[in-house]
Amino acid sequence: MNGLLLLVLSAMGLGALALLGFFWAVRNGQYEDIEGAAQRILLDDDDKP
Amino acid sequence: MTEIAASSELMEFVQAGPDGARRLSLAVPDAYCATCIQAIEGALKHLPGVRQARVNLDKRRVQIDFDPGADPLTFPEAVVKSGYRNHPVDPQDLNDKDPVLRELVYSLVISGFASLHVMFFSEAIWSGVEGDARTLFYWISALVAVPAVAYAGRPFFRSAWSALRVWRANMDVPIAIALIATTAISLLETHLHGEHAYFDASTMLLFFLLIGRTLDHVMRGQARSAASNLARLAPRGAQHVLEDGTQAFIRSEEIKSGMRLLLRSGDRAPVDCQVVERAGAVDVSLVNGESMPHEVFPGEQVPAGALILDRPLHVIATRPAVDSYLSRTAALMEAVETTRTRYRRIADRASDLYAPLIHLAALLTFLAWLFLGAGWRLSLINAVAVLIVTCPCALALAVPIVHVVAAGRLFARGVLMKDGAALERLATVRSIAFDKTGTLTTGKPRLVGQSFGDRELLQIAAIMGAVSSHPLSKALAAYGSRDLYADCHEVPGSGVEARIGTSFWRLGSAGFCGAKDDGAGEGSCVWLARDGDVVAAFDFEDDLRPDAAETIEQLQGQGVTLTILSGDRQGSVSRIAQRLGGITARFGLSPQAKNEAVAAMREQGAVAMVGDGINDAIALRAADVSFAPAGAADVGRAAADFVLTNDRLVGVPFALWLSRKADTLVRQNLALSVAYNVVMLPLAALGYMTPLLAAIAMSSSSVIVVLNALRLRFASGPHLRGSAK
Lengths: 49, 725
Hints:
The structure holds 2 protein chains of 2 kinds.
Chain A: H1 2-27, H2 34-40
Chain B: H1 7-11, E1 15-16, E2 22-27, H2 34-45, E3 50-56, E4 61-66, H3 74-81, E5 87-88, H4 91-94, H5 99-126, H6 131-152, H7 154-165, H8 172-191, H9 199-230, E6 237-241, E7 247-251, E8 260-263, E9 273-277, E10 280-283, H10 285-288, E11 294-296, E12 301-302, E13 307-308, E14 313-317, H11 325-335, H12 338-341, H13 346-371, H14 375-390, H15 393-412, E15 415-417, H16 420-427, E16 429-434, H17 436-440, E17 441-452, H18 457-465, H19 471-477, E18 487-491, E19 495-500, E20 503-508, H20 510-513, E21 524-530, E22 533-544, H21 548-557, E23 561-565, H22 570-580, E24 584-586, H23 591-602, E25 606-610, H24 614-622, E26 625-629, H25 634-639, E27 642-644, H26 651-685, H27 691-714
Parallel strand pairs in B: 16-23, 16-25, 23-24, 25-26, 26-27
Antiparallel strand pairs in B: 1-2, 2-4, 2-5, 3-4, 6-7, 6-8, 8-14, 9-12, 9-14, 10-11, 10-13, 15-27, 17-22, 18-19, 19-20, 20-21, 21-22
C-alpha cells in the first residue's frame, strides 16, 4: 500500500508541475505570436548582440 | 489605400511603454512571412530613437517602442517604404486581454488535467480493482475531481444560474445539473463503498464541453480583433484653426458647428462642413459611391467622409459629428440590423429543441425506476446516467469545430470571416448583388475611344488635360506626345479653358462645352469645344477587375442569381453588365434605393451583397450576408461579414462554395451526435450504463465529430473553368 501511495502522489505531483508550467507559459506570453515565432527561425539575426 | 495619419492625429495613438519609452502599434495586414518580419523590423530599427520594433504575425501588427524625443511620424512612412501598407491601431483595441477567453482556457486545462488523472484510477478499477482499494481510488479521484468541477464548471454554472433566476432554461441548465448530480452521486457512492462512481465521466464531460465552448468563443472573438484592426469608422479629428491663427488638433466628437477647421490633402472631413476659402477637389466616392472627384467652392458643402484631394481646404463645421452624414448612415445601418439578429444560429435552434427533451428523459427515468420500486439510490443513479450520456458534448462541438476549420481555410484564401453565423447565412444565399464602382471595377477610368471628331484633337485634349488633377483629365493627359504651347487654366468643377493660337478651347463636361448629354453614352464622357462648337468627345470606361469575369462565371456555376446595384448612370452600368453577361443591371440608385432593392430581393430568398462604399453600407447591412474588398471604405468593411483581404473577387465564389460544404458538415455532425444519443439513451434509462461505457461513448462521439469537420480542410475547391492556376 505504501508503494502505491508513493506512486499515486508522485504521478499527481508531476501532473501538477506540468499544469503550473503551462500557466507560467501563458503568463509569460509564450503563446502571443505562434505564427511569428515559427517564421523567425528562418531569419539570420547576425546583427543582434 | 495607404493612409498616413497627420502628425497630431498619430500622436493620439501613442501610449506609454516600459522604461519611459513611448509605444505605437501599427496594423500591417499584409505581413505573413519571415521576410515580411525582416523588412518591417529592419526598416524601423534603424530610425533614430527607435528602441525596439517587433512584428506579431498572429495579430498582424508591429509594436514600436521609441524614445520620447523621437518622431513617430517617420514610422508609418518607413513601413510603407518597406512595402507594407499600415495604419495605427487604437490603444483601446490593443487591450486584447480577453478575460473570458482566459477563464475558459484555464478551465479547459484544469479539467483536462483532472480527467487525465481520474482516468488513471478508473482504468485500474475497470481492470478489476475491488474492495477497499477501489474505495481508496474513488476517494483520490474525488480529491481531484471535486475541486476541478467546482473551478472549471463555473462558466456553465454561471450561465445556468442567470437563466434559472428568470425562470428560463438554456442548454447550460442540464449541463450544470448533470455536472453537479454526477459529482454528488459519485461522492455518495464512494461513501457507501458502491461501484457506480462517475468521477471520470464528470471531469471528461466538462473537458469536452469546454473544448466546444472555447472554440465557439474564439470564433466570435477572433472576428472582433480582426475587425478592430479594420473598423476605423470615422476620422478621428482635424486641425482646429484658433482665433490667433494657430492650429491645434481637435477630436471629432469635440467639434462644434461654427468652428474653423483646416483639412489637409489626404484627410477626410470629420464632420459636415462648408468651404470658406479657395476651391479644392474632394473625392466623395465614399459618400455617394461614384468615383469622379469634384470641385467645391467657397460656400459649398463638404459631407463628412469626403477625402480632400489636392490642396488644403479651410472649412467651417456646419454640424457636430453626432449629426453628420456618417452618423446618419450609422443610425440607418443600426435600423436595418434586425435582419441579422433575427437569424438564429443552427446550434441555438438545435439546443432549444434538445434541452427540454433531456430534462424530460432524466425525470421519466427517475420516476419510472422509483415507481417500479428500485429505491432512491438506484433511481437517482440511472437518472444521472441519462443526463451524462445525453449531455451535448458532441453537439457542443459539432458547429464551432466546423466554423473554425472553415475560417482557417477562408483566411488562407484571403477571405476574413468575422463571425461563424455569417457562414451559416451564406449557405442559404439565393442571389448576390454587386456594387459596380470599386467592386466589379477598379474605380479608375481609362480612355476607350473617341466618338467623333478629328484624331488630332486628342493631342489638344491631352495638353489641356495635363493641367487638371481630375481622373478623366489625367487619363487623357497620358496620351499627350506633342509639345505645344497652350495658355490653359482650370475652371473648377467644369473643365479646362485654353487659348491656343487664335482659337479658344474648352475641355470638360457637356454643359461646359455646350454639348447635349443624353446619358445613354457608353461610360463617362468628356467633350472638347472650339470657339463654342463641340468638335470631339472622348469616352472613358471604368476597367473591370481582372478577376470579375471569372467570379461571375463561377457564381453562375453555383446557381445563384446575380444583380448589379449601382448609383452610376445607365450607360456605364449596362455596358459592364453586357461584358460580364448573365447579370441583371440596376442603375442610378441612391443608398436608400439600394437598401430597398436588397429588401425586395430578400423576398425571393437570402441575399448576399458585395460592395465597398459608404453608399453601400446600408445595403451591406440589410443583406443577409455581405462582402467588402479590403480597399473599401472603413464603414463598408465594418458593415461586411467577410472582408476580401487580398482584394480579389474570386474569394466570393470560394466562400459560397465553402459555406455550402460547411453547412452539410454541420448537419452531418448534428445528426451524428443525435444518433449517438438515440442509441445510448435507452441503455442508460434501462440501467445498463456503466462508467466505462459512458466514458467510451462520450469521447468517441466527440472525436468522430471533430474528424468529420476536418474533412472540410481537405475538400477540393470548386471545379470550374479558369479557376486553375
